[in-house]
Write a structure and sequence with these properties.
- Helix content is about 45%, strand content about 10%.
- It has 11 helices and 9 strands.
- The strands form 3 sheets. A 5-stranded mixed sheet has the order 1-2-5-4-3. Strands 6-7 form a two-stranded antiparallel sheet.
- A hairpin with a 5-residue loop joins strand 4 and strand 5.
- The longest helix is centred in the C-terminal third of the chain and has 20 residues.
- The chain is globular.
- The relative contact order is 0.12.
Length: about 260
C-alpha cells in the first residue's frame, strides 16, 4: 500500500478518518483482485450504505476495519494479508483462528478484524451463501442484525442503527433493502436473537423520543415507522412450538453469549 495515500493530513478530531476509508478501499480492491470473498461489516459498512451517517448528528469515529470471509477461504488469509502489508496477531489467531482473526498494518497500525464463516458475538448470524449478495459488504439484513444483536447497546451502535433505518427501507429481498424475510427466519430459529432485537428496537425508540440527537423530524419519524413495520411483520409470523416454550421462560435464563472484548 502507498503510505502517502493512507496517512493524509487531516483536521484535528478527524485524524485517521479519511485515511481509514482509503485503506478500506485498497484492502477491498486487493481482495477482489485475489478473488477473495471479503465483505465489510461494522461501522464502515453502515457508512457505505447510509449517506446520513456522514451528517454531524450521526458521525462517529471508525477505529478499525471489520470484515467477514467464507470459512473455506480461511487458509488464504495469512498470505493475502501479508501481501498487502498486514501482520497477524499470532497469539489471538492461534487460539481463535477458526472463527476470528486479527491483522495489523505494519505502517498505519490499523487493525482488521476478520470474522471467519459466521458472525458470532452476542448471537450467531449464519453467513453461509450470503456473502455473494453484495460485492462490498454483507447484506443489509445481516448488517442491521450485526448491530441490533448487541445486548449492551452503546451510543455509536445505536447511531449506526438509526443511520441504516433512515437510508434503507424494509423489504422482502436483498436488493438495496433490509430483508425482513431473512431477519424473521433468523429470529424464528433463535429466540434469543429475537429478544435482543425487540429490546434494542425499544431502546432506539426511546432515544428518538427523549433525546435531541440532531436529526430532523421527518428522519426520526421514518425510523419509527420502519421499527414499527419490522416489529409488526416479525410478530405476526406463526412461531414454532419450541420457540414458544423458550419464550415462556423469557429472560429468567440468559439468552445471549457473553462477549469478551478484544483489546483495540
Amino acid at each position: 500500500m502507498d503510505e502517502k495515500n493512507l496517512m493524509p493530513v487531516e483536521p484535528a478530531g478527524q485524524i485517521g478518518q479519511t485515511a481509514i476509508f482509503a485503506e478500506m478501499d485498497q484492502l477491498m480492491d486487493a481482495a477482489k483482485k485475489c478473488q477473495l470473498e471479503l465483505r465489510l461489516i461494522g461501522g464502515l459498512a453502515v457508512k457505505y450504505h447510509s449517506p446520513t451517517a456522514a451528517n454531524s448528528a450521526l458521525r462517529r469515529n471508525y477505529p478499525d476495519i471489520d470484515v467477514v470471509v467464507d470459512k473455506n477461504s480461511r487458509h488464504l488469509l495469512p498470505g493475502f494479508f501479508a501481501s498487502v502489508g498486514y501482520m497477524p496477531d499470532k497469539n489471538f489467531n492461534l487460539f481463535n483462528g477458526d472463527r476470528r482473526q486479527i491483522y495489523i498494518h505494519a505502517i498505519t497500525g490499523r487493525r482488521v478484524d476478520v470474522f471467519v464463516g459466521d458472525f458470532e458475538m452476542c448471537h450467531k448470524l449464519p453467513m453461509s451463501n450470503r456473502l455473494e449478495h453484495h460485492p462490498v459488504t454483507v447484506p443489509l439484513a445481516e448488517l442491521f442484525l450485526s448491530k441490533i444483536q448487541i445486548v449492551e447497546l452503546n451510543r455509536k451502535d445505536a447511531l449506526d442503527i438509526i443511520s441504516l433505518l433512515i437510508d434503507n427501507g424494509i423489504g422482502y429481498n436483498d436488493n438495496c433493502q433490509i430483508n425482513i424475510d431473512r431477519i424473521t427466519r433468523l429470529c424464528l430459529r433463535d429466540w434469543g436473537l429475537y429478544k435482543t432485537l425487540v429490546l434494542n428496537l425499544a431502546k432506539i425508540e426511546q432515544i428518538l423520543l427523549e433525546e435531541q440527537i440532531g436529526i430532523d423530524e421527518e428522519q426520526s419519524q421514518r425510523v419509527m415507522d420502519r421499527i414499527n413495520t419490522m416489529r409488526s411483520l416479525i410478530n405476526k409470523v406463526n412461531k414454532p412450538f419450541l420457540w414458544k416454550v423458550r419464550d415462556s421462560v423469557g429472560t429468567r435464563i440468559r439468552w445471549y453469549a457473553e462477549v469478551e472484548e478484544v483489546e483495540r
